[in-house]
Design a protein that fits this description.
The complex is a heterodimer. Chain A is mainly α. Chain A contains 2 helices and no strands. The longest helix of chain A is centred in the last third of the chain and has 6 residues. The radius of gyration of chain A is 21 Å and the shape is extended. By secondary structure, chain B is of the alpha+beta class. Chain B has 2 domains: 418 residues, Creatine Kinase, Chain A, domain 2; 72 residues, no CATH class. Helix content of chain B is 42%, strand content 16%. Chain B is built from 16 helices and 19 strands. In chain B, strands 5-6-7-1-9-14 form a 6-stranded antiparallel beta sheet. In chain B, strands 17-18-19 form a 3-stranded antiparallel beta sheet, covered by helices on one side. In chain B, strand 18 and strand 19 form a beta hairpin. In chain B, helix 4 crosses helix 6 and helix 4 packs across helix 13. The radius of gyration of chain B is 22 Å and the shape is globular. Classes of the chains: A mainly alpha, B alpha+beta. Chains A and B meet through helix 1 and helix 2 of A and strand 2, helix 2, strand 5, helix 4 and helix 10 of B.
Chain lengths: 64, 506
């Protein structure tokens, strides 16, 4: 059996990787979290946008 | 020899469809990683989930009736088994494929916690990039991915942590030494869950528990992974020289979002394995491990005690403290990972007793609980409100625009060991000191000459005889790096293999 043009050669590196915005882009090593309350203007807004029925609709098959 | 890796099955859904076909969606997602057609290359001959570490072979694995019905439907699909699996080996040595209708990313084998975290995070980026590409094709953000372990309807999928262990350690000792540790590991490594459920038996809203997987543990030991799940999986599939090694395949863990929790989970387990290999055994034996794992999970106040066979009753914290005591006495310091784990393990146990808010951004169940408590207060909700279950799910969403954990990370409220540079590096290549890195190097350097691959072997074409790089006992970092230099510099795999053979003989 002969294999040519293996799929791993054809990964598409052009697309940007999804990258969560991070305050520390480079270096620094371990960072301790700043724990206060969740930022009300951002995270709570994100939480309020979640559809209350989303988990009810979410169905998966059993995996390992 | 320390070597570990993580396999993560992601939840996948389509928000634009009433009925989602998880087989097709999972397959399409993996293929979205490619720009060309899929070509079969993974060699399944190295996989045999029927061998049991207790010294026998099972004739078949248990599946529930629902799975059997699905299997009948899947048999009539217009694509082959290999097309459905869409198994890929990536240039960083990882494996990315469709496993039981879930996109699964298996990190390459790692030797350090930082490498493991970088590769786990690289996996998150790779699956989400595939979802972005698929969504581009679909015309909107229809595909959503979740790094979690339940659908809140009685279906669970796994995040397995794996460790290379010497076969000289009797399996019975491994079981005895590990069970109490694993039952209580969720205090640090659980990702938290709203409500309760069990395999195929619906969902009871309300309440909060430490672990997503505890509800699905049904027996102490067993070879099965999809039904009658065991706390300690006995699958004897070493992916290495079976005369020398075992692979400890732990299926009870949750898919952590917090880097700190992932590092602790794997680091603590590594230390426990270290002292068990030295013949040290904590004097703890649980009376009913399966009941205990659920009992501890369902007690976020951490006050519950579980009975030991000697009549004592200990809390999860007390069991973990005992394991920490043994580890601190038995595991030699000097290794940065050992020092880090011993220090952070102790600190975390102490903070769980004193002020758990200091663990927000570090332990998932604490972080999620903190978010949900805030929301309950703000919105005046009851704990059985279905909105909280949906928020639990969204904590694990891999979309940077929607995921609650990723939102928290963007605000700088999570602990990081990795930097973006670490992750970018892990996307491109595997660890330089493990066979995972060597696998990735071969994919990058000689893609057209590789005919088949599996965890312990790469087969190359060329000449009259197929040529094989055997990696079943290629674990010492010096050997890995010496082999890598040959594959880096040789003109062909045949030249590299000949030089490697000469080096081994000399």
């Amino acid at each position: 059996m002969r294999y040519i043009l293996m799929p791993e050669r054809r990964e598409a590196p052009g697309d940007p990787m999804p990258k969560p915005p991070s305050p520390s882009e480079e270096g620094g090593g371990p960072r301790r979290p700043e724990t206060g309350s969740p930022d009300k203007d951002n995270l709570l807004k994100r939480m309020r946008k979640v559809d209350p029925k989303q988990a009810e609709r979410y169905r998966q098959r059993t995996g390992e | 020899m320390h070597l570990f890796g993580i396999e993560t099955e992601y939840g996948i859904t389509r928000e634009d469809l009433e009925v989602v076909d998880p087989v097709e969606e999972s397959m399409e997602l993996v293929r979205a990683h490619l720009t060309g057609d899929f070509e079969r290359r993974w060699d399944y001959r190295g996989e045999d989930p029927h061998e049991d570490a207790r010294g026998f072979r099972v004739s078949g694995l248990q599946q529930d009736k629902e799975e059997d019905d699905f299997a009948k439907i899947d048999a009539h699909r217009p694509f082959s088994f290999h097309e459905m699996k869409s198994d890929l080996v990536l240039p960083n040595g990882a494996r990315f494929y469709n496993d039981h209708t879930h996109p699964e990313y298996s990190t390459p084998e790692c030797r350090t916690l930082k490498d493991l975290l970088a590769h786990d995070r690289a996996g998150e980026r790779i699956v989400q990039r595939a979802a972005d590409r698929r969504n581009q094709h679909l015309g909107g953000p229809q595909v959503q991915l979740y790094k979690n372990n339940t659908d809140y309807h009685g279906h669970s999928y796994g995040c397995h942590d794996n460790y290379l262990v010497s076969r000289s350690l009797p399996f019975s000792q491994l079981v005895k030494g590990l069970l109490p540790f694993l039952v209580s590991r969720q205090l640090l490594a659980g990702t938290g869950k709203v409500g309760m459920e069990a395999q195929e038996s619906g969902f009871v809203p309300g309440g909060y528990q430490l672990s997503q997987r505890a509800d699905f543990m049904e027996t102490e030991l067993g070879v099965d992974t999809m039904h009658n799940r065991p706390i300690l999986n006995t699958r004897d599939e070493p992916h290495a020289d079976r005369t020398k090694y075992r692979r400890l395949h732990l299926i009870l863990g949750d898919a952590n979002m917090c880097e700190y929790a992932t590092a602790l989970k794997v680091g603590m387990t590594r230390l426990v394995l270290d002292f068990l290999q030295r013949g040290v055994l904590p004097k703890l034996e649980l009376d009913q491990p399966v009941a205990a794992i659920k009992q501890l999970s369902r007690d976020p106040d951490l006050k519950a005690t579980v009975r030991l066979k000697d009549g004592r009753a200990l809390s999860g914290l007390e069991i973990q403290e005992e394991y920490w005591n043994v580890a601190s006495r038995s595991c030699s310091s000097g290794d940065p990972d050992v020092d880090w784990v011993l220090r952070e393990w102790q600190d975390s146990l102490s903070l769980l007793k004193q002020d758990r808010t200091k663990l927000v951004g570090k332990l998932d169940w604490v972080t999620k609980y903190w978010l949900l408590e805030t929301f309950v207060r703000e919105e005046r909700l009851a704990w059985d409100d279905p909105w909280l279950t949906s928020l639990d799910l969204e904590y694990h969403n891999m979309s940077p625009d929607r995921g609650l954990f990723l939102g928290l990370e963007a605000e700088g409220k999570t602990w990081r060991m990795t930097t973006e540079r670490d992750i970018v590096q892990a996307l491109a290549a595997g660890p330089s000191d493990t066979r995972g890195g060597l696998r990735g190097l071969c994919v990058r350097r000689f893609p057209e000459q590789i005919t088949t691959m599996q965890w312990e072997r790469i087969q190359f074409s060329g000449g009259l005889r197929a040529r094989t790089l055997e990696m079943g006992d290629l674990f010492h970092p010096d050997d890995v790096q010496a082999c890598a230099v040959l594959f880096e510099t040789a003109a062909s795999p045949a030249d590299a293999l000949a030089a490697w053979s000469r080096r081994k003989e000399s």
